Amino acid sequence: MTGPTLTLPRADGSAESYRLSAPRQWSRPAGGFTSRVAFAAAHVVADPLADNTPGAPARLDWDATLAFRRHLWAHGLGVADAMDTAQRGMGLTWDTTAELIRRSAAEAAACGGVVASGAGTDHLPWPAGAESLTLDDVIAAYEQQLTVVEDAGARPILMASRHLAATARDAEDYATVYGRLLGQVRRPAILHWLGPMFDPALEGYWGSSDLGIATKTFLALVREHATAIDGVKVSLLDEDHEIALRAALPAGVRLYTGDDFNYPQLIASGSDALLGIFDAIAPAAATALAALDRGDTQGYDEAFGPTVALSRHLFSTPTYYYKTGICFLAWLAGHQDAFTMVGGLQSARSVPHLVEAFRLADQAGLLPDPDLAAGRMRQFLAVSGVNA
Q1: Among residues 75, 81, 135, 349, which one has the fewest Cβ atoms lying within 10 Å of its Cβ?
Q2: Could you give the residue ranges of the DSSP H alpha helices within the chain?
Q3: Residue 219: exposed, middle, or buried by beta-carbon count in 10 A (0-12, 13-18, 19+)?
């Protein structure tokens, strides 16, 4: 059985008749996964009646935001919250982030979910005023956010910091900051290495723009503080580098892939996962990871394979706008009532980009209600001046 038909525009201005596929029936695990630890970095749902323009205080639809986290937990995934997927550094203010951390951790405790939350420095001034910060200012900012995360009961993720990148003079400064933080965490933390394709302000993180030199600094830090580190989350979109880094980590320190281009082969070869794309493909990810647990290579490939084109499209340059496609698909799938984002970021991708995301999500079996998805796509196109 096939789904409804609608007219979709092409980038060249022409149009095509497109029929949606029948929804795929995905499996859900009875519990967690045994062969890998997997987190989905979850987005937030903006209140459509809030002033969600750039610079305005962020206001969320808390019911929809928490319901989406329950959706991820129901598929056996952990939730990585208050990360860049949730628009950290792109409109989500610290006051709202702190409330998100507390609410998400309380929801996890109530329903048996696993949650890890990001601690960073994004409440410090940026960009104006950042030039006067000291390393002590950066450490104090991390400590303030770390206290919120740990008091809420969430596992801490020490996020990459724009302010540290702007303030640190060399690798030793990074060692000083992270050494202070790792010396006080109450439970092992996840270190977050986010590449400049996700945030250009992070160029030269770990004290060098040379990847080899930065990696040596990073590994020295991890080896020195291994007992305080649960794992490292690496988002560099470099498959070969990740495999080599994973092999060099101390025993007991996980590598959580953040590679939204190459995740199927990296997870299959031994990486755990902390991925923004899992927000959009949770049913496929759950099915694939359950297949991996039982040694079903074919089932793993059949679940993950069709999602790769979608992920590479969503995370295409400029990569940091991937969040727009993530929220668009959540709206099409019925997880939220409006395609509205904090800071007006729903306008960050073009109509052709979002139309292609729609096609690829349908072809991957990720639109659970084709009639709803088609109806919402028609509404979006109509508002955009396109007759569907």
Answers
A1: 135
A2: 62-74, 94-111, 135-152, 162-167, 171-182, 211-224, 239-248, 263-269, 277-280, 282-293, 297-304, 307-314, 322-332, 351-363, 370-383
A3: middle
Helix (H) or strand (E) holding 39: strand 38-41
d(CA 102, CA 122): 17
Express each pLDDT in 252-287 by its tens digit: 999 999 999 999 999 999 999 999 999 999 999 999
The per-residue pLDDT for range 125-144, each reduced to its tens digit, is: 999 999 999 999 999 999 99
d(CA 362, CA 310): 10
* CA–CA gap between residue 77 and residue 327 (Å, rounded): 18
Return the exposure string of 274-311: e unless at least 16 CB atoms fall within 10 Å of the residue's CB, then b.
Answer: bbbbbbbbbbbbbbbbbbbeeeeeebbeebbebbbebb
- Please give the Cα distance from 274 to 119 (Å, whole number): 15
